[in-house]
Design brief:
Helix content is about 35%, strand content about 15%. The radius of gyration is 19 Å and the shape is globular. Bound molecules: phosphoric acid mono(formamide)ester.
């Protein structure tokens, strides 16, 4: 699972059904010994920890891999690192990497790779957990209006979520600083002023400012950003009664969202994190079954 483009709508629905069953207490264990390893070349709290937990819940053997103490620091390439783990007997790897589309380097390797996020390219497993959270709330995607707000240009979540939500019949709109909206990258994206957008959407997805991917210093102060492009208490009051707030996190409290709204009644931010374990269980099981491994 490298990008959301790899998945047909039917496969996404199968993953969501499996993930929802895990959320409702279904237990599934590997029938044989399976070794998996999580290679995080870029920092992570949610993705790495939820993969660790999902793997243990499925009865997989998690082989620790710490990039900072590995031979990556002696200059070993990503290709040679993954080829080595395969030779040692690892059966699947999860990789997060700062380089867009790093996985192209690994095309000739047979080992299944799950993309835990590549640069500003894709974050398909985040998308599955976001979809699960939306589906649990509304029971459908068709006709839902989704607003994605903030640093759209540098966000792998914006790319993956917009693609999947459109595939499933939702309407996707964008807002935030216009210079961070790259129409070329997000095909057919419609840009809407934030004060108009908040009144219309069923789901408002806020994005973190990806400082680490900005070539130059921001032209606007964080306080001004919050007033102009953030979810303030006033904007939250203008949302439809049943509308929900999401954010892939980590959150810059008081910047893209008022700190008091992070855990408000309509926030599903921590619910989505909880769903991360179940979504990743479904994704791991699907990837391993496609290689012939069996689960009880
Ligand atoms: N949402 C997300 O990918 O968080 P982490 O960077 O902590 O994994």
């Amino acid at each position: 699972m490298l990008t959301i483009s790899d998945l047909a709508p039917e496969t996404i629905k199968e993953l969501l059904n499996d993930a929802d069953a895990f959320a409702n207490g279904k237990i599934s264990k590997a029938k044989s010994e399976i070794f998996v390893s999580n290679l995080f070349y870029e920092n992570s709290t949610r993705t790495k920890t939820s993969f660790d937990i999902a793997e243990r819940k499925l009865g997989l053997q998690v082989v620790p891999f710490d990039v900072s103490t590995s031979s990556v620091n002696k200059g070993e390439s990503l290709y040679d690192t993954v080829k080595t783990l395969e030779a040692l007997g690892v059966n699947l790897v999860v990789i997060r990497h700062f380089q867009d589309a790093y996985y192209k380097e690994l095309e000739s390797i047979d080992l299944p790779v799950i993309n835990g996020g590549d640069g500003k390219g894709s974050h398909p497993t985040q998308t599955v957990l976001d979809l699960l959270t939306i589906y649990q709330e509304f029971g459908k995607f068709e006709g839902l209006k989704i607003g994605i707000v903030g640093d759209v240009k540098h966000s792998r979540v914006a790319n993956s979520n917009a693609e999947a939500l459109r595939k499933l019949g939702a309407k996707v709109y964008f807002s935030g600083p216009s210079e961070w909206f790259d129409e070329g990258a997000i095909i057919n994206g419609t840009f809407v002023a934030l004060d108009d957008l908040v009144k219309e959407v069923d789901v408002l997805i806020l994005l973190r400012i990806q400082h680490e991917r900005h070539g130059e210093k921001m032209q606007i102060s964080l306080g001004k950003y919050h007033k102009k492009y953030g979810l303030t208490k006033e904007r939250e009051k203008a949302m439809k009664p049943e509308a929900i707030i999401m954010h892939p996190a980590p959150i810059n409290r008081g910047v893209e969202i008022d700190s008091d709204l992070v855990e408000c009644e309509r926030s599903r931010i921590f619910k989505a994190m909880e769903n991360g374990v179940f979504a990743r269980m479904a994704i791991l099981k699907h990837a391993l079954e496609s290689k012939g491994f069996e689960f009880e």
